[in-house]
Amino acid sequence: MLSIHKLTKAFGPNVAVDQADIEIANPAMVGIIGRSGAGKSTLLRMMNRLSDATSGKIVYEGCDITELRGKDKRHWQSECAMIFQQFNLVPRMDVVSNVLHGTLNQRSTVSTVFNLFPKADIHRAIDILERLGIAEHGPKRAEALSGGQQQRVAIARALMQDPKIILADEPIASLDPMNAQVVMQSLRRIHEEDGRMVIANLHTLDTARRYCDRVIGMRDGRIVFDGTPEQLTTGAARDIYGADDSFSEAATSTEIQALDRIPA
Ligand SMILES: Nc1ncnc2c1ncn2[C@@H]1O[C@H](COP(=O)(O)OP(=O)(O)OP(=O)(O)O)[C@@H](O)[C@H]1O
Ligand SMILES: [Mg+2]
Which positions carry the signal peptide feature in this UniProt record (predicted)? Predict the structure, then answer.
């Protein structure tokens, strides 16, 4: 169980996240939506402790995450892997080595400096790549892969940490609809098959509705919606996005559903 209590982050006078309260029972796939600047990334970064909260608490299985320091904080960061819009791979390094870097915080400095990876880790990296359907690209440089393939490498790297939680900040924002679909399906499968919690910031309504069990809507740093995809009506969405009657769902659509209807 992940409990977030009155979590707040202020940048000077600007309150990016304002007293957020969220309870997520394991396992869940949760989508966070809201317009640009609503506080979605800031919320995710606080969960991972990339950014410290101004006030409030994050409690995971009885442990106060906001209080962790040093080794304990690093351990938490390996328990909740982060995936970013821009993949954050090492472009000139091969795919398998990129994935192996997911184990970095579990290894000694010496083995890191000399790029020595245990055989078992290499096998595991290849297994994970296979699971994500990209093992054949293992020897290639990361930069030689398509965006969708690179994002799957980033997911593989996250899985190397064997995380309990995967935090994804706009994982498909730079991808075309077809690649976006493959990446979202990968995240969904990881959630369903491994029972990992997945929390993804998403900029499109249809993606959140389609892949998530629960959707959280943020507006001006506040949580203004928390419900099932069915409860996320056009009216509720208009409220989250702060739009008037001219609000159109199409403006927040990746047209993934339309793509689904194209026969293979
Ligand atoms: N490091 C920072 N320093 C100052 N202000 C920041 C910082 N990071 C975020 N903010 C501000 O906090 C608010 C929330 O930003 P955040 O990046 O969390 O929004 P977001 O919902 O992720 O937006 P987007 O959809 O554009 O990614 C914004 O007003 C932003 O300008
Ligand atoms: Mg963001």
Answer: none
- The letter for the amino acid at 47 is M
Beta-strand relationship, 2-11 and 80-84: unpaired
Q: What is the pTM of this model?
A: 0.91
Residue nearest to atom 4 of ligand 1 (CA): 11
Tell me, using a 6 A CB cutoff, whether residue 41 lines ligand 1: yes
Q: Does residue 27 have a cis peptide bond before it, meaning omega lies within 30 degrees of 0?
A: yes
Q: Is the shortest distance between the CB of 14 and ligand 1 below 6 Å?
A: yes
Strand partners, 229: none
The domain locations on the chain are 2-85+162-260
Burial of 35 (0-12, 13-18, 19+ CB in 10 A): middle
Distance 17 CA to ligand 1 centre (A): 9
**Phi, psi dihedrals of residue 220, rounded to the nearest 5°:** 50, 45
Residue 192 and residue 200 in contact, taking contact as beta carbons nearer than 8 Å: no
pLDDT digits (tens, 9 = 90+) for 80-125: 999 999 999 999 999 999 999 888 666 655 555 556 678 889 999 9
Residue 34 Cβ < 6 Å to ligand 1:
yes
228 backbone φψ class: left, alpha, beta (φ>0; ψ -120 to 50): beta
Q: H or E segment at 233?
A: none
The topology (CATH level 3) of 2-85+162-260 is: Rossmann fold (3.40.50)
Separation of 39 CA from ligand 2 center, angstroms? 7
